[in-house]
Amino acid sequence: MNDKIDMHLHTDYSDGLLSPKQMVEYCFAKGIDEMAITDHDTVEGIFEAKREAERLGIKFHTGVEISTHMNFEGKFIGLHLLGYDIDVGNTKLNGIFSYLRRCRQKTNERVFELVESDFGIGREEILKSKNTDYIGKPDIGRIMVKKGIFVSLEESFEKYFNVGEMARINRKSIDIDEAIDGIVDSGGFAVLAHPAFIKIGERGSAERFSAVESIVKKVKSKGVIGIEAMYLRNEERETEFLCELADREDMIITRGSDYHG
């Protein structure tokens, strides 16, 4: 598979650091010749990125990453769904984004309260750090790094965002069937993002591999046609397993870095 493809990139229209134009320029500098912007629950950065990609001669795909959930063996699990070659003006899809935006804004109020209480970083300071109204935990983590509270974004998640009450504040999701329906209605196709990182069983365990295989088969039956088998943070055996699984299930394979800047 062409290693000059990156189909999973986030800009500052969601929780990435770079603007859409800067992200395309970054990809061009890295020798990427085919790419997709897949911001969380929004397509607002697509237009700027597409213009720049066309200027630089990079093959560009419209995309999005949607937070979903699915009932699996009697309990709900979180799954991220990538939608590609979508019509960004589609009414059904944009209705989903509007709903998730309202939910995120409500959830963020509690995040802002905790961050101000724990570190004295106020809501206004956080909002001023972005050119868009999307605020994710990585955006706040970057402010903390600049202030010297943590040495890296990774440390902010390890020691703060992924523990205690903050860890229980998660991005709102929708039923996977609704997300697939929106993607297909817009003329696009759905791919399961980073399957090796689905939170079920210990990473690398036989339990997780077995569960991932069952989940992939289930989402395929719902209309998902591909899996992100080539993922930057995969271990080699995870990539091998997912590529073999995709081949057995006759599903497409996508490659993505999940780069946030």
The helix/strand order is: EHEHEEEHHHHHEHEHEHE
User: How would a crystallographer describe the biggest sheet?
Assistant: 6 strands, mixed
User: Based on CA inertia axes, which overall geometry fits?
Assistant: globular
Major sheet: arrangement of strands: 6-4-5-7-8-9
User: Segments where pLDDT lies below 50 for 5+ residues?
Assistant: none
Helix content: 40-55%
The tally of strands reads: 9
Our estimate of the beta-strand percent is 15-25%
Task: Describe it.
With 261 residues, the protein is of the alpha/beta class. The protein has 10 helices and 9 strands. The protein has helices at residues 20-29, 46-56, 91-119, 123-128, 137-146, 153-161, 164-167, 176-185, 206-222, 236-248; strands at 5-9, 34-37, 59-61, 63-72, 75-84, 174-175, 189-192, 226-231, 252-256. A 6-stranded mixed beta sheet has the order 6-4-5-7-8-9. A 3-stranded parallel beta sheet has the order 1-2-3, with helices on one face. Strand 8, helix 10 and strand 9 form a beta-alpha-beta unit. Helix 1 (20-29) packs parallel to helix 2 and helix 5 (137-146) packs across helix 6. The longest helix has 29 residues, at 91-119. It is globular.
